[in-house]
Amino acid sequence: MRKYLYSENGFVEKAEWSPNCWVNVECPDDNDFQFLTQEMKVPESFLEDIADTDERPRTETEGNWLLTILRIPMQSNQHGTPFITIPIGIITNDNIIVSVCYHHTELIPDFIQYTRRKAIVVNNKLDLILRLIHSSAVWFLKYLKQINNDVANAEKELEKSIRNEDLLQLMKLQKALVYFNTSIRGNEVMIGRLKKIFQDTDYLDIGLLEDVVIELKQAYNMVNIYSDILTGTMDAFASIISNNVNAIMKRMTSLSITLMIPTLIASFYGMNVDIHLESFPHAFVTIILLSAALSALTFVWFRKIKWF
Predict the structure, then answer these.
(1) Angle at 202 between CA 137 and CA 9, to 5 degrees
(2) For residue range 116-162, what is the model confidence (pLDDT) as tens digits?
(3) Phi, psi of 77 (to 5 degrees)
């Protein structure tokens, strides 16, 4: 699906393409591929690179074409991970601006609505790329807040009862933070490359560039903070689980020793030999009381050393 967006106090969608409009393509089909490759002459290798879900942020040139790949966040249930990052490619030349993403995301529609609310005029291709990076940083921060809330909820559940499901949820959130960390860092590196590419042109807006850098640094710092907190939380619960297992094993061992005493005495007096108590009228009761007394003394001793 593709849209033709014109910057007129915010992006306005129109039915036809004209030079210098933004062509936004999401989940491209065969018709979109034909339009991009045959009518707009976009290099097919660029589209193949963007299709790779593991593609890192980078730039590439071919003729007068420039490919800029960024990574943006999105919600997903892929492999049970609640948040992932995906590549989006911005392909530009002198009068063509095309963005291609192979997933439906919340970022692009929100970015378009934001430009309309604020009546933002996007002057050139670098302006669009920088604003998309800025928008990605905002969405990273939004999803980080959701991750923080999910971690807090998982901690509350783990305080009640430590279950494998809650620990696995924390592990998946930690995996999402790793994705965020890597992608934000890659986008930061991309800004440096773009600055070098456009430093001698009229495209570079220093004020916008500084705003984007600040927003990305904030997102990067927040990712590191939440990652450290989550790592500490998982380590703490791992120690709690280990302590609980040790306590259970200690109680089970104490109980086994306590029950072993009457079992041992009964085994001795159950042997088919003389026990020198055959003629004693209360031998059975005496043996039972002796076993109970020894077990009680053992229990008291274990309680004293806090094994029970």
Answers:
(1) 60
(2) 898 888 888 889 999 999 999 999 999 999 998 988 888 887 777 76
(3) -110, 20
The number of beta carbons lying within 10 Å of the beta carbon of residue 48 is: 10
d(CA 128, CA 20): 11
Cβ pair 82, 173 in contact under 8 A = yes
Q: What does pTM read for this prediction?
A: 0.79
Residue by residue, DSSP assigns 82-121 as SEEEEEEEEEE-SS-EEEEESS--SHHHHHHHHHHHHT--
* Measured CA distances, 133 to 168, 177, 187, 229 (Å): 31, 18, 7, 26
Residue 114 and residue 183: Cα distance in Å, rounded?
23
d(CA 256, CA 268): 18
Q: Given the DSSP bridges, would you call strands 83-92 and 2-7 parallel, antiparallel or unpaired?
A: unpaired
